[in-house]
């Protein structure tokens, strides 16, 4: 309530209290991180207005090209299961002029049939302490139904820096045992763990990929699964109940769905 009213200091105090009671309460963590980001500039108009944020990129980081293709997605919910900010991951899949398409999970921006409000896409950089990362509004472009793959495509309009490009797609066979990496976002108390990279391996392959040893958290929904050549193998969508294995769609299944939407 305080955050919606623009009372960020009061909101942060309440989120701190909620995390004191339950450090694993994901919505308190998500909302706390968001409130603290907005507090830096009192609003997010500076972030949306940035046209080129490349001056904020860290030096000598070989993962920057990958991270620039991976985005942080936020949406606001007020349902029985979701309260406030939901965080998920997306990947750039197409750029044409001032139009950029971003693939994510449907559930990142939907709770059942209710679409989240104020959907925003945030791009990787390390801005100074008084600024926040570049953001753009995300508009729903395509989505699957509940009976299909858990996928959605967001459209971002406007100019973006040229280095933000789609990830290359792997043409190699996906075999059990191959090592993989996953890039996504996790919320921990008073710490922003966005664009974290976790390692794991493919433990099984059918119509879905089973991933072991990665120990993913909810903010990794929609995260890319990449191989040792930094090429895209699939997209994370869920965790297998009762097991420490996460599930992902292989890129071949994703491409079939995108082709039905005429997205190359």
CATH 4th-level superfamily of the domain at 179-260: Trypsin-like serine proteases
CATH architecture of the domain at 179-260: Beta Barrel
Please give the alpha-carbon distance between the first and last residues: 42 Å
Strand order of the largest sheet: 7-6-1-2-3-9-8
**Rg, Cα atoms, Å:** 18 Å
Give the overall shape, derived from the CA principal axes: globular
Share in helix: 10-25%
Major sheet characteristics: 7 strands, antiparallel
Low-confidence stretches: none
CATH topology (fold) name of the domain at 179-260: Thrombin, subunit H
* Helix-and-strand structural type: alpha+beta
Provide mean pLDDT, rounded.
83
Question: Under the CATH scheme, which class of the domain at 179-260?
Answer: Mainly Beta
Give the count of helical stretches: 6
Provide the β-strand percentage band. 35-45%
Number of distinct beta strands:
15
Task: Sketch the topology as an H/E string, one letter per element.
Answer: HHHHEEEHEEEEEEEEEEEEH
Describe it:
By secondary structure, the chain is an alpha+beta fold. The protein has helices at residues 8-21, 26-41, 45-49, 64-67, 106-109, 251-260; strands at 70-78, 83-96, 99-104, 110-111, 114-115, 117-123, 135-137, 139-143, 152-157, 179-188, 191-205, 209-212, 224-226, 232-239, 245-250. The protein has a domain at 179-260: Beta Barrel (Thrombin, subunit H), CATH 2.40.10. The chain is 20% helix and 38% strand. The strands form three sheets. The chain has a seven-stranded antiparallel β-sheet. A six-stranded antiparallel barrel has the order 10-11-12-15-14-13. Helix 1 runs antiparallel to helix 2 (26-41). The longest helix has 16 residues, at 26-41. The model has no long low-confidence stretch (mean pLDDT 83).
């Amino acid at each position: 309530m305080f955050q919606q009213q623009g009372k960020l200091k009061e909101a942060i105090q309440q989120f701190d209290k909620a995390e004191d009671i339950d450090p694993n309460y994901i919505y308190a963590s998500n909302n706390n991180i968001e409130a603290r980001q907005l507090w830096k500039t009192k609003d997010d108009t500076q972030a949306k207005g940035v046209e080129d944020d490349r001056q904020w990129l860290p030096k000598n980081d070989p993962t920057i090209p990958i991270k620039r293709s991976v985005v942080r997605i936020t949406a606001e919910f007020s349902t029985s299961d979701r309260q406030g900010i939901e965080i998920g991951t997306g990947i750039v899949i197409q750029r044409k002029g001032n139009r950029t398409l971003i693939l994510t999970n449907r559930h990142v921006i939907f709770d059942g049939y209710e679409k989240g409000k104020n959907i925003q896409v945030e791009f990787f950089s390390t801005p100074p302490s008084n600024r926040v990362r570049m953001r753009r509004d995300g508009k729903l472009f395509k989505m699957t139904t509940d009976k299909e793959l858990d996928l959605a495509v967001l459209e971002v309009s406007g100019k973006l820096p040229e280095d933000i490009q789609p990830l290359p797609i792997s043409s190699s066979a996906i075999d059990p045992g191959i090592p993989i990496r996953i890039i996504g976002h996790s919320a921990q108390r008073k710490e922003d763990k966005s664009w974290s990279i976790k390692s794991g391996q493919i433990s099984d392959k059918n119509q879905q990929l089973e991933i072991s040893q990665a120990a993913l958290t909810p903010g990794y929904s929609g995260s890319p699964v990449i191989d040792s050549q930094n090429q895209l193998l699939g997209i994370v969508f869920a965790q297998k109940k009762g097991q420490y294995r996460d599930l992902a769609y292989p890129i071949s299944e994703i491409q079939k769905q995108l082709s039905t939407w005429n997205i190359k």
